[in-house]
Amino acid sequence: MSVVRSKICGITRLEDALAAVAAGADAIGLVFYARSPRAVSVQQAQAILAGLPPFVTTVGLFVDMPQHEIEAVLAAVPLDLLQFHGNERAADCDALARPYIKALRVRAEDDVAALVDAYPGARAVLLDTYVDGVPGGTGQAFDWALVPAVLSKPVILAGGLTADNVPAAITQVRPYAVDVSGGVEASKGIKDAAKVKDFVRAVRAVGELM
């Protein structure tokens, strides 16, 4: 049996975080990117983290934020893992000296293996859909055939995933984890507890068959 982990991203409310935990999600994502409809303030993030039970990984998503601003967030919010979702170089990511994952937006012409190898300090890479001018959260899937069978880092698959298509995505890509935001929402930034539960159940069910 292969365990595929799940992350529910774009959490803006404690009740949504607790619904994700109750469903069995391994991680939640908090977006510190003001232009996102799923952005949270430091105060919102503090309230969410204060209400979480133990053994849930908390991930902070940043998009080309200056290092001193990220450090200010980290001083106030005890995040477990950073997720860089912009054009950050490896040196930018490494400078924080914190565990991180790097999001890469996949295009047909990309050498995905080379992109992954450019971030040797990353704990994993998150592969998302490329949409010009949009750093993520597009709700669109990319061609999973573009993901090489062997990469130097664990893969977190994102981009347009739902309870309906995640079994096929996992079967084809065999990622370490999957990441969902819009696919489990009632509206942008507000999760649908039933959709979250269905998503995590689908991830676990297909993992048990692998």
Which descriptors apply to this entry?
alpha/beta, 210 residues, TIM Barrel, two-stranded antiparallel ribbon, single chain, eight-stranded parallel barrel
Can you give a write-up of this model?
- The chain is of the alpha/beta class and 210 residues long.
- The chain has one domain (5-209): TIM Barrel (Alpha-Beta Barrel), CATH 3.20.20.
- The protein contains 7 helices and 10 strands.
- The strands form 2 sheets. It has an 8-stranded parallel β-barrel.
- Helix 1 runs parallel beside helix 7 and helix 6 packs parallel to helix 7.
Walk me through the topology:
Elements: E1 5-8, H1 14-23, E2 27-31, H2 42-50, E3 57-62, H3 67-76, E4 81-84, H4 90-94, E5 100-106, H5 112-117, E6 124-129, E7 155-157, H6 166-173, E8 177-180, E9 185-187, E10 190-191, H7 193-209
Parallel strand pairs: 1-2, 1-8, 2-3, 3-4, 4-5, 5-6, 6-7, 7-8
Antiparallel strand pairs: 9-10
Helix pairs in contact: 1-7, 6-7
